[in-house]
Design a protein that fits this description.
Helix content is about 35%, strand content about 15%. It has about 80 residues and is of the alpha+beta class. Strands 1-2 form a two-stranded antiparallel ribbon. Strand 1 and strand 2 form a beta hairpin. The longest helix is centred in the N-terminal third of the chain and has 11 residues. The mean pLDDT is about 85.
């Protein structure tokens, strides 16, 4: 299985697919995964517990109601 083969919007995947293997691959190779439902539209999936806790504990920074801004890299330059 490759990252390109994982479709978290396909319900049959959760009934008949290798869900455990897919999430193992996501955690290893793409722990903050963008699942595109159609071009430019989709959702983020966080697959590591530590990342989920970070988001859960900081609801002010991780809010989607006003749009999404991503920061990559260090704030120190």
């Amino acid at each position: 299985m490759t990252l390109e083969q994982i479709d978290l919007t396909y319900l049959d995947f959760f009934m008949n697919g290798d869900v455990t293997g897919a999430f193992r691959l996501l955690r290893a190779e793409d722990p903050v995964h963008w699942q595109e439902k159609r071009p430019g539209r989709g959702f983020w999936s966080l697959t590591k517990f530590e990342d989920l806790l970070t988001v859960y504990r900081d609801a002010q920074s991780f809010i989607s109601g006003k749009g999404v801004t991503l920061h990559f890299g260090s704030d120190e330059e």
